[in-house]
């Protein structure tokens, strides 16, 4: 497994596509979790980068966070708005850890306020999920064909052309 910092150093192409698409959609991604009955759930999510880590946090008491509390596996997909993938597309797979560190939570809240004006300073966070990445992929359209970049921990990125 890898933190965001470790992942972006090991898989710069895939990380670049993810960041580009994440930024272009105003941080919107789609989060895949597993419901209690085993079926998949897809939920909108605005993951954030902070202190070398990718954080999956948001409105408390939502089903996606109940899912992660029960089963920490996830898939995070950049919001695709172009069926031709002119700007690319990326998926991250991994597991979350609930990090209960009040000082970290407050540093995060302060940085979020400075960046966006959204004020969570002084609030308590029930769940504060750090994403540990187990694999990732990115798809880009290059010269009328698809290039799929695949990453797994301990391996370099590899490209499949279709």
From TrEMBL:
Coiled coil: none
Keywords linked to the UniProt accession: Oxidoreductase
GO cellular component: cytosol
MF terms in GO: coenzyme F420 binding; oxidoreductase activity, acting on the CH-CH group of donors
Family matches, as InterPro entries: F420H2_bilvrd_red/Heme_oxyg (IPR052019), Split_barrel_FMN-bd (IPR012349)
Transmembrane segments: none
Name of the protein: Pyridoxamine 5'-phosphate oxidase
UniProt organism field: Kibdelosporangium aridum
């Amino acid at each position: 497994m890898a933190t965001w910092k470790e992942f972006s150093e090991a898989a710069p192409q895939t990380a670049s596509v993810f960041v580009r698409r994440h930024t272009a959609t105003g941080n919107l991604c789609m989060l895949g979790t597993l419901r209690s009955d085993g079926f998949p759930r897809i939920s909108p999510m605005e993951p954030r980068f902070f202190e070398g880590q990718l954080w999956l946090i948001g409105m408390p008491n939502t089903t996606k966070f109940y899912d992660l509390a029960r089963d920490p596996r996830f898939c995070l997909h950049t919001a695709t708005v172009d069926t031709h993938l002119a700007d690319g597309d990326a998926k991250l797979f991994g597991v979350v850890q609930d990090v209960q560190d009040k000082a970290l939570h407050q540093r995060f809240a302060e940085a979020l306020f400075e960046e966006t004006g959204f004020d969570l300073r002084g609030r308590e966070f029930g769940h504060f999920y750090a994403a540990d990445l187990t694999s990732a992929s990115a798809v880009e359209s290059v010269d009328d064909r698809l290039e799929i970049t695949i990453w797994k921990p301990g391996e370099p990125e590899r490209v499949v052309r279709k």
